[in-house]
Amino acid sequence: MKFLIPTPVLPEKKSIRINFINRIVLELKKTVNVDIVWLVFAPDKFSSFSTDDAKVFDIHDFHNGDDVLKKIKPDCVLVGSHFDPIQHSLSLAAKKFEIPLCSFYYNDYKSEFSDKNKIDQFKKYSKLITSNNLPSDIPKNSKFLRRFKFIFYKFSFLRNTKKTLKIFQLPFFLFFPKSLINYLFWKKIPINTLPDLFLLPNSSWINPLLKMGISKEKLSITGNPLWDNFVLNSKSIKNRNRSSKISILIVTDPLVQHGIWSSVQYISFLNLLMSNLIKEDKFSFSLKIHPASENKQFYFNLINKFQQNISVFQKESIWDIIQDYDLVISFGFSTIHSEIALSETKMILLNFNFNFPLLDFVEESIFAGNTQICNDINFLNNLIFTSVNNKPNNEKFHDQIKFKYNLTGKSSKHCSDALLEFLKNF
Known about the structure:
By secondary structure, the protein is of the alpha/beta class. The chain is built from 16 helices and 14 strands. An 8-stranded mixed beta sheet has the order 3-4-2-1-5-6-7-8, with helices on both faces. A 6-stranded parallel beta sheet has the order 11-10-9-12-13-14, with helices on both faces. The longest helix has 19 residues, at 146-164. The protein is globular.
């Protein structure tokens, strides 16, 4: 059974999507023979290759979505929940060839909303499309208007797909500007309504999807396979490795790569944060940066001037290092906040008025006293002492998440079972 999954990064990057799908694949392999094909849509061409677990194809080897499905011949296409020109192209082609199409969701419905007004959204996305980098880039990849050119490529791919499938569309001189304007002013990215099966983390999505005209028979509440790992790993943390100092892990978020801040703003913030922490001789700290969207050398260059022994982790899983730290400082909007919350590690989230929603488990961690919000970095050091000495109500935390989330550790199996039943009856 062959599954085709589009991804913006190589499988080795271990992004959320890669980890999510890999959890499901492990369960599928217990029942059926599985062939996984990753279709990587990134700006730079590469030679397609095979690993022990999968085949990896470059999007540039294909003319459009129709071409992809004709050559790869998948039994099922798995796409993300939101609109993306490449994923939409594959979705349209899958409908034409009557190939089963399934979408997967990571987060609660409420996390899809932003309180930013259209002007703020326009400023953010304008900055994004004129960027010389993409989130997964390293510095040497930087090229003039690199992101804009890739957006142009993706919409061209979609237009070529529609043309091949004989779907009505505007002339390109109107199609691309219209698509770009929609992108700039989207309050939230539209949901892909084409799939035949929707794998949902919880019931929060049911009514919104029904209102979009999607039939209830297509909706399957499976839980989130990422939670399986969270539950398993959180149980493995029994004792923390204590030191004479308060050990702090700064978990970063790619704010520059996602157009939230400029490089100047981000460097200024990091300098201020680390300078404040270094003032207190009872603190030691390290950094955990994004595994795919940030560059390790950037942080090495930044911390060199402090002449401190500061470790920078990137490829390491948060679960491999979290037991060595008393507290986490983080910011932005990241699934890793959910992992930290579930690990019962004390966490301080720096609030920069981005109006990001709280991800799974974080709100419950705040109520239980494990997570604190810092609205002024000048008071951070005092808050660190308060947080470390605070005794959280972990029993309350577990009662709340047990009530809200289906943490059985079997979400991957539920996804696998739902997929196999769907494919059997398709």
